[in-house]
Specification:
- By secondary structure, the protein is of the alpha+beta class.
- The chain has two domains: about 80 residues, no CATH class; about 240 residues, no CATH class.
- Helices cover about 50% and strands about 20% of the residues.
- It is built from eleven helices and 15 strands.
- Strand 8 and strand 9 form a beta hairpin.
- The chain is globular, with a radius of gyration of 25 Å.
- It starts with a helix and ends with a strand.
- About 35% of the residues are buried.
- The N terminus is likely disordered.
């Protein structure tokens, strides 16, 4: 090959690599990973109790208070982490239930949520190395067009791997490349783990001859009133949490916000066959609905032609299924509407 031709090829190769890098950088600039949609709209700090008070009033239309008969005891017993909760259900009966995990199980569990910048850096390193390898192999055999196609396929694989990583951590990439918690995924991941708590509630219901509706009410009361309302931070050290505590952590910490409490309640109710649920995402808030025929005055939404009665897990007020806070009513009727997310 003549020196002039060789120089031309080298310049062409460098230009193509620069173009590929520029396209990748542009794609990453559009990726809003640290920003987690719903929590940004809330614009709240978990360190500011006064802001928490305002949010509680807004979502539940009640003054801030601790419902009578509620209690929580969170403690360590040997190598086990445990939590015991007392509350009054909608039958006005006192109920006590508990939940626990070994410290080792809990550590492994927490590793399955959130993501770090290191996680993303490792993925980018794989992408960049694979791009270079793909270019070198295909350029020799098929020229520039083949090399560009190979690099584009690597970029598609990168996006697929990125979405898979996020999904494995209970996250999803939404419109505009905004990353937020995927509540249905989190619910499905936690049903089996929280089944002992569901069994404990079922045992109480059987002993007291509760109906299915009263059993559901007990779970709702537990989450609303015994788990304190507090907004988790979007970052914990180098971990991006998107402002959510996974269900087991919420139980072993004793607090959480609307996303956290909805995921917790959905995970408990998911243990009982036949219960269908949908999550409801509205601007700055998250709640859920359960499949059943609405009673007089119950608020509900329709999904696939069926009625789902609204449930407001956020608390701290004692709101029966079918009742939501005044601000939630406004959000549901607002111009931006709401998004339904089937849990199963």
């Amino acid at each position: 090959m003549k020196p002039a031709t060789l120089r031309y090829c080298c310049l062409l190769l460098a230009a193509c690599f620069a173009a590929a890098a520029r396209l990748g950088a542009e794609w990453e600039d559009k990726l809003v990973l640290p920003l987690c949609g719903r929590d940004l709209l809330r614009a709240q700090s978990s360190e500011d109790e006064e802001e928490d008070e305002e949010e509680e009033q807004e979502y539940t239309s009640r003054e801030k208070r601790t419902e009578k008969g509620t209690s929580q005891k969170i403690f360590r017993e040997g190598t086990a982490l445990k939590a015991q909760y007392g509350f009054i259900n909608f039958n006005k009966d006192q109920v006590t239930v508990s939940f626990g995990m070994s410290a080792a199980e809990y550590k492994k569990y927490l590793a399955g949520y959130g993501y770090s910048d290191i996680d993303l850096a490792k993925l980018r390193i794989w992408r960049d190395a694979t791009r270079t390898e793909a270019w070198n192999e295909t350029y020799k055999a098929g020229g520039k067009a083949a090399a560009e196609k190979a690099v584009a396929e690597v970029d598609m694989d990168y996006e697929t791997k990125l979405r898979a990583l996020l999904r494995s951590r209970g996250l999803a990439m939404r419109a505009g490349n905004v990353v937020e918690n995927d509540i249905p995924v989190i619910v499905r991941k936690n049903v089996k783990l929280l089944s002992p708590l569901a069994v404990a509630l079922q045992k109480v219901a059987t002993e007291r001859n509760y109906s299915e509706e009263e059993l559901v009410g007990s779970a709702v009361s537990l989450v609303q009133t015994s788990i304190r309302y507090k907004v988790p931070p979007a970052m914990e050290g180098d971990l991006h949490t998107c402002g959510l505590l996974p269900p087991a952590r919420a139980l072993l910490s004793g607090w959480g916000d609307c996303d956290t409490k909805t995921a917790l309640l959905g995970s408990i109710l998911g243990s009982w066959n036949g219960i269908k649920m949908v999550g409801i995402a509205v601007p700055g808030h998250y709640l859920m609905a359960i499949r059943r025929l609405p009673g007089k005055g119950d608020m509900f939404v329709r999904h696939e032609g069926l009625e789902y009665v609204l449930i407001e897990p956020a608390g701290p007020a004692w709101l029966e299924p079918g009742m939501v806070g005044t601000a939630t009513k406004g959000l549901l009727a607002g111009k931006q509407g709401y998004r339904l997310e089937p849990f199963f």
